Amino acid sequence: MSALLCGLAVLVASQTGDVGPKASMTKGQVAQAQMQTYGPVVSAPTGANRAVAMAADDSTVFAATLTRIERMDSADLTQSTERDFAAEKVTEITALHVDGQHVYATAKAEERWTLFKLKQDNLETVCIYEYGVDTDIPYAIAGDADRVFTGHQTFPAMIVSIDKVGCKLSKRLVLNEGENDVRSLEFDAKHDPSHLYANTNTQPARVVKIGLREGPSGKDLKRIGGVTLAAGRNNILAGSEQDGDYLYVSTYTTPAYVSKIDKRTMTLAAELTLEAGENNVVAMDADFLSVYVTTSTNTSPKVLRISKATMVVEDRLALNRELARGITAMAHSRGRLFVGADTSPATFLALNPGSYYVPKDCKLSAWSAYSACTRPYGTQCGTGTKTRSRTVLVKKTAGGASCPGGDSPQLKEVTLCDTGTVCPPEAKVCIEGTGEVFRADTRALYKPRRTCDTQDEQPTGALATPKCDCPADKPFWLELSTGSHCADKADCDANMAPCKLTKCMFLGGRVKVTHHHLETKGGFKCRHDAGRTGQCNCLCHTKFSSPSDPDTTYKLGADHPNHQ
Predict the structure, then answer these.
(1) DSSP state for residue 449 in the 8-state scheme
(2) DSSP structure class, residue 276
(3) How confident is the model at residue 520 (pLDDT cuts 50, 70, 90)?
(4) For the chain, where do the domains classified as CATH 2.20.100.10 start and end?
(5) CA angle in degrees (0–180, nearest 5) for 155-157-159
(6) How many helices (H) and strands (E) does the chain have?
(7) How confident is the model over 400-424, as a mean pLDDT?
(8) Residue 205: partners with Cβ closer than 8 Å, 6 or more residues away
(9) What is the predicted pLDDT for the residue at 102?
């Protein structure tokens, strides 16, 4: 703990106060914790008077007093660093902004309004920008990734943009007549990265919409539009808040008003009038569900939680004993709100965990191990698939990232893999009933193929082409009207009958045949019996084509191995 803690006065915080219901329900029935004080009130060192502004990141709360900046741990508000601007002769700090790496503060130094860029870890100066003499008090500050924007108490009001690198002037914009004295600015890179909203300390107050990426350079500032609040809605001092569709602003009036403005049309969408005694809002914050406002009255300062959806106060926390001088600053970190009071020295208080709603994103388990590599059917060989999966551990809450659907590849992943087994050659299937088999051996080639009528033909060569063919034990093609098929010699002879009209005789060493076309159209075979008295006989049958012979008119199916 820093030696600076020696200067801290710790006051015991009261746990009493006017509070709302134990939990508020809104947008998807999300239960929000009741706001309560959490730990003691922490007092800044002597001389660090009046909380002017607060800002925070995930681990640190920064608070600006009139002449110093305090850096505190968001866990318990213990102080780690203090930056005293005595050497720069700072007499008033007016605004504070944090961007994750640096802290930006506007202050009056040696009678000149100045922007300080500080290192976030030790609050040492990186660079400064001195405003011109025509630029009065910079009460408001905001920033995008490249620039810091400040709003000024000028008539009309002026918006100045300063490059973060080198703290150099980028652009200036003077608002319209009557749009005077900007006291708060609102920028949200997530919901609206192209616009800045400026709020005036006028009667009635005005909200002005400013384009940030205008002109050839994409860095010009341009007034886009605005809305004037109703009579009596005066003096917007609090830093306004926004979401995707609406802007929320509060007034420094008795009682105070909270207005909901449609950003697209810049028209009033809804308005809430706070209760008697809930006056003078000077600090605001917002989460996905609610807007938080603080009242700076001395008698009964409060923190109010207001539903964005209904514009109804859902919770009230009175801090009249803890921060009696009124709440002038507010920030959030780690799901908690932090407030600061207009006291000397400045005092700060943390609210309970859950006082600021943080959406929960869907959370998934780790991936399971891959399943075995398998094929969905057939022989388990060659290429298969393997799967792995994971489950939803935590469902999202309102505003969080959604969980993937049941069939999403984020929950189930299917990947190709090798089963580790080589598949055997694919079996070739020949036409059922023909007796043909798939042959890949080298065998005698006959053209045309041998049939029962050409059993004695000599081969014309060798055939090694894999195809459906008759097996070696049934080498002949037997053509029958009842079904042609492969046959052996016995089958061929058994399916032939003596011809009635076809005759033969043996003359000059050769068989002479006289045949009739009506009888021999199906094929015939004539043989001469050996011997001097041998007879010549002819056998006949009907001819049908082989389904495997490409020279025939038999129509092969597309799935037949010999189909071309």
Answers:
(1) -
(2) T
(3) low
(4) 359-424
(5) 150
(6) 2, 46
(7) 91
(8) 199, 228, 229, 233, 234, 235, 236, 249, 251
(9) 96
| Burial of residue 78 (number of CB atoms within 10 Å: 0-12, 13-18, 19+) | middle
Amino acid identity of residue 486, one-letter, is C
Contact in structure between 101 and 120 (CB atoms under 8 Å): yes
Band of residue 12 on the pLDDT scale cut at 50, 70, 90? very low
Contact between 292 and 337 (Cβ < 8 Å): yes
The torsion defined by the Cα of 40, 46, 50 and 55, in degrees rounded to 10, comes to -60
- SS3 track for 527-546: EECCCCCCCEEEEECCCCCC
Residue 23 in this model has a pLDDT that exceeds 70: no
Cα–Cα distance, 284 to 467 (Å, whole number): 86
Name residue 167's amino acid.
C
Topology classification of domain 359-424: TSP-1 type 1 repeat (2.20.100)
- Residues 16-25 as b or e (16 or more Cβ within 10 Å = b): ebeeeeeebe
Cβ neighbors of 482 (< 8 A, separation 6 or more) are none
**Cα 53 → chain centroid:** 35
The structure's pTM equals 0.70
Tell me the C-alpha distance between 56 and 72, whole Å: 9
Q: What order do you get walking across the sheet with 206-214 strand by strand?
A: 182-188, 192-200, 206-214, 220-228
**Each residue of 34-52: pLDDT tens digit?**
999 998 899 999 999 999 9
Give the tokens for residue 251.
Answer: 């007034």
Dihedral angle sign, alpha carbons of residues 28, 29, 30, 35? positive
